[in-house]
Amino acid sequence: MRKLIFILFLLTVSCKTKMAAPSGMVTHKAMVVSARSEASKIGANILARGGNAFDAMIATELALAVAYPYAGNISGGGFMVYRLNDGKTGALDYREKAPLAATRNMYLDASGKVIPGKSWFGATATAVPGTIAGIFEVHKKFGSLPFSTLIQPAIDLAQKGVIITHKQDSTIKYYKKQILKVSGSNNFFAKDIKEKDTVRFTQLANTLERIKNNGRDEFYNGTTARLLVNFVQSKGGYITMEDLQKYEAKWRDPVEFRYKKLKIISMSPPSSGGITLGQIMKMIEPYNISKYGHNQAKTIQLITEAERRAYADRNYFLGDPDFVEIPTAKLLDKSYLKSRMSGFTFKQPTLSSSVSHGNIEIVESDETTHYSIVDPFGNAVSVTTTVNGAYGSKLYCDELGIFLNNEMDDFSSKPGTPNMFGLIGAKANRIEPEKRMLSSMTPTIVEKNGKLWMVVGTPGGSTIITSVLQTILNVYEFKMSMQEAVNAPRFHHQWLPDDIKMEPGRFSKKVKEELTKLGYKINEHNSRIIGKVDAILVRRNGSLEAGADKRGDDTAAGF
Ligand code: DON
User: Fold this and answer.
1) Which of 137, 196, 237, 334 has a Cα at 20 to 30 A from 520?
2) What is the pLDDT of residues 312-352, one digit of tens each?
3) 87 is in an annotated binding site
């Protein structure tokens, strides 16, 4: 009996130290994981035809614009982080910009109050789109196949039609009232669209065809540009031809930092993703978190306290680096972060009301989607792209076949007043003409021992950063497989509101009681789905394991 107990003990210990066997799709050369199977297959097919990760990025992005209008787009923006097979890294910012006509108080009434819905619904919420500029920039620098080859599958898909899934059916139903209210009862999405229907996007196919024939200029200075401007202006929005002509995607240096044996490469401002992820990871690094156990009270407590402090800094310091000075090095400095955690004890919560941004002297951004790609050459690409809310501003332009984004809501309309994700902004993220709104998108690539190890990211507004964090920790600290790490229940804290959001019904009663006893507020009711993570893990034998989030229709494809 004693012997048996000992063997069982040994088994438990080894389970904790050994990496779990893969439970997601495994391929040996290349993989694309995205929100829709059509898009993943189109991306993987480009790779099979000899294209690289960047070619696949362009094809996948465009396929999502067709198959996943919920978040995929040509009318929004995004961020790409890449790592080449020789270890070189970089990032592309194709985030939307505020129009030239934007003003600091554009969403406030005469008495200084935020006008409900103005930065949320319809043309007034729309910022200058960056997606088309982004993919052309990627093609110019890294593309190996002709652009026409990369856009053609999306055109074919739009013409052939997309089969509506069960989940898509329910989101369309959920948002239909809002879409009808904003876009009127004659628009394309007013039709009765239901599960298993094949929906053809003819207008969108025409728009994409024009882009294929006329290139980047079609969207920023051609027929499409004029149609977009006329439409936006007829609906009371602000975008002009000059805004479109002036738009440029920008190459940026990613944020890079170490966590134990890992090197994390993530998105820099105007996304808060990389810096905030870095702050949280560096704050928890000194603790032996794997010993506390996955999703145990002590683990949740430590992560929560680090998140609280990091989001307080995020909301104060971060904004568009072309407009505000960002003390990145200091924000990621070991001793600064140690001092941020100095008041932390496992005995009780540090109330958010007593936490502010750190003391740094400086001179002086509901729906998004993520995809991860690894090509047969060993290049990796991590992309998060968005129109902000589900179906963006809910304003559908029939002529172009697109929903307009509502990215303007990612600005801080009024310091101290929460946006749609409950994020409270400050001066650094106030509205200014041509400025990029602060984002939480966190496309991330992780190296282990100098080699490509993980490609990861997710939608989820303010919960993006903490979902990426938990996915990395689940594999590295808690030895889960990629798919298990994505499936695992997630929680989130963002300083304000001062509560721990938890996926409803997925955390044990005991853990919740322990945290409540300590003084933490648990919020299982009001929580949105916390992320839809799409990730790829390079396993020790070089094979690739997918983590495709079953919270959505997310799927992997590869070979
Ligand atoms: O850039 C951002 O942080 C937001 N616009 C992302 C929106 C998002 O993730 C919506 N998904 N649930």
Assistant:
1) 334
2) 999 999 999 999 999 999 999 999 999 999 999 999 999 88
3) no
Query: What's the rounded Cα separation, in Å, for the pair 480 and 294?
Result: 10
Q: What is the pLDDT of residue 527?
A: 62
Question: Quick one: which H or E segment has residue 557?
Answer: strand 555-558
Q: DSSP for 188-243, please give it.
A: GGGS---TT-EE--HHHHHHHHHHHHH-HHHHHHSHHHHHHHHHHHHTT----HHH
Considering only CA atoms, which of 30, 25, 23 is closest in space to residue 51? 30
Q: Is 365 in the pocket of ligand 1 (CB under 6 A)?
A: yes
Out of 421, 429, 532, 534, mutate this one to test ligand 1's pocket (max ligand atoms within 8 Å of CB): namely: 421
- Report whether 461 belongs to an annotated binding site: yes
Task: Given the residues 207, 368, 369, 555, select the one marked as catalytic.
Answer: 368
Residues facing 79 on adjacent strands: 93, 384
pLDDT digits (tens, 9 = 90+) for 368-380: 999 999 999 999 9
Cα of 439 from ligand 1 centre, angstroms: 7
Sign of the dihedral through C-alpha 425, 429, 432, 434: negative
Q: What is the CA radius of gyration of the chain?
A: 23
How confident is the chain (559 residues) per 10-residue block, as mean pLDDT?
45 59 97 98 98 98 97 98 98 98 96 94 98 98 98 98 96 95 94 96 98 98 98 98 98 98 98 98 98 98 98 95 96 97 95 80 62 98 96 97 97 84 84 97 98 97 96 98 98 93 95 98 80 97 98 97
pLDDT of residue 535: 98
Per the CB < 8 A criterion, the answer to whether 245 and 228 are in contact is no
Q: Are 138 and 58 in contact (CB under 8 A)?
A: yes
Tokens for 222, please give them. 């051609």
Q: In this predicted structure, what is the pLDDT of residue 302?
A: 98
Does residue 301 have its Cβ closer than 6 Å to ligand 1? no
For residue 465 and ligand 1, the question of a CB distance below 6 A is answered with no
366 Cβ below 6 A of ligand 1: yes
Cα 441 to ligand 1 centroid, rounded to whole Å:
7
Q: Is any atom of ligand 1 closer than 6 Å to the C-beta of 467? A: no
* Residue 458 a catalytic site member: no
Q: Whose CA is nearest to atom 6 of ligand 1?
A: 461
Q: Is the pTM of this model over 0.85?
A: yes
Sheet holding 555-558, edge to edge: 250-252, 89-94, 77-83, 380-388, 367-374, 31-34, 555-558
Atom 2 of ligand 1 has which residue's CA nearest to it? 439
Under the phi-then-psi rule, with left for phi > 0, alpha for psi from -120 to 50, and beta for the rest, what region is 528? beta
**DSSP designation for 521:** P
Secondary structure (DSSP) of 229-244 = HHHHHHTT----HHHH
Residue found by looking up tokens 């069960």 in the block: 166
> Distance (Å, rounded) from C-alpha 26 to C-alpha 23?
8
Q: Quick one: tokens of 78?
A: 């995004």
